[in-house]
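Dear support,

I submitted the protein below through the web form. The confirmation email said the job was done, but the results page showed an empty box. After a refresh the structure appeared. I'm attaching both so you can tell me whether what I see now is the final result or a partial one.
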Amino acid sequence: MNRFYFGRYIQQETPSLIHTINPLIKLIATALAAGAVFYFGKNIISFALLTLLLIILVILSGRLFIPLLYSIKSFKILYIFIFTTLLFFGEQGNFSIYFTKDALINALLGVYQFVLLVGFSSILSLTSSPSEIAKSLYVFIKPLKIFKINVENIGLSMLIAIRFMPLLFEESSKIITAQKLRGVWITDVTFKEKLKFIFNLDSFIVPLFVRVFHYAEQLSITALYRQNIGDVLTLNKINMKDISFLFIVAAAIWGIYAGTIIL
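What the results page shows now:
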């Protein structure tokens, strides 16, 4: 569980360039990159250029290669499902046990399309705290006020939900570490036996829920003081460095599009 990095924030002693960028700008840049991944379709040249852009962003984020790889690896079951679906059903949606070379290539590129999507999303989550991501999402739903929707409560719910999921994995990792130190955790056994141990009420489920409810109570107490929720969900101001970063990413995506057409 301590190797589950998707959605986790990796804080650094010396913040990298990507860490210092306004999270709203990073969210917009991620949306542009995700749109490029789907808009360019299954094109090897465009995917190669997008991979180069992803590598550059990882380097600028403090070389978070290992957390990025673990984030991508977390969705391996989804990749298998996508690959199998595209291989045997094809673009027309007709099932056939026989597949062609083109179907195999399209299935591989379809999987890599989602790999790139997870990669760009991971850059956002690894370099932005959950509260910053929730604040960025709050900016997008703020115009819904004209429809008499209580966007402050929605923003608070997003803030708690986004913070809660990584916390669940962190607490699970702490419980497993504590059981290893006590000699309770079993290591040299099959994966099936480990699952039985995890779902045992006394050894794992009860301690995990005790910790989770403890944090839930603290979050609910915090929610009682949401009169200043507008201040809580306020982002830092966007500066020239943030605008320059967004402009460079947008220019890079446009360059990839132009390079795909030329090549």
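Response: this is the final, complete result; the empty box was a page-load delay. The chain has two domains: 1-128+237-263, 131-232.
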